[in-house]
Design a protein that fits this description.
With 114 residues, the chain is mainly α. The protein has one domain. Helix 1 runs parallel beside helix 5 and helix 3 runs antiparallel to helix 5. It is elongated and about 55 Å long.
């Protein structure tokens, strides 16, 4: 739950920062599905990079984390895969609201800022 809220915050902030860019793209005729796809691709790419880094670093931290794990062996491949897939699903769910919000940007208002 905490990671979902954090991912939502990062994606929402990033979309808010690029609001003008998206407004210009919409003004130039980009369909809403393209804008939503861009946000989902960005979010899932970031999550995938985090998962890859986590899978590489996790075996090296097995000894330090062993005292914190209860009922799970350090380096358990099934657990790593399950958590990775769960994080991708959480990231996709966290991207929904910012993606919908990005498609509702008024192009006139986005251009007015320049």
């Amino acid at each position: 739950m905490l990671s979902g809220i954090g991912i939502y915050g990062v994606v929402s902030y990033s979309v808010r920062q690029r609001r003008r860019e998206m407004g210009i793209r919409i003004a130039l005729g980009a369909p809403a599905s393209t804008v939503r796809g861009w946000i989902f691709r960005w979010g899932l790419t970031m999550a995938s990079m985090g998962i890859i880094i986590g899978v590489v670093v996790a075996p090296q931290l097995d000894n330090a984390a062993e005292a914190l794990l209860f009922g799970v062996a350090p380096g358990d491949f099934v657990t790593l895969v399950a958590v990775g897939v769960l994080m991708l699903v959480v990231t996709a769910a966290a991207c929904v609201l910012p993606a919908v919000r990005a498609t509702r940007v008024d192009p006139v208002e986005a251009l007015r800022g320049y």
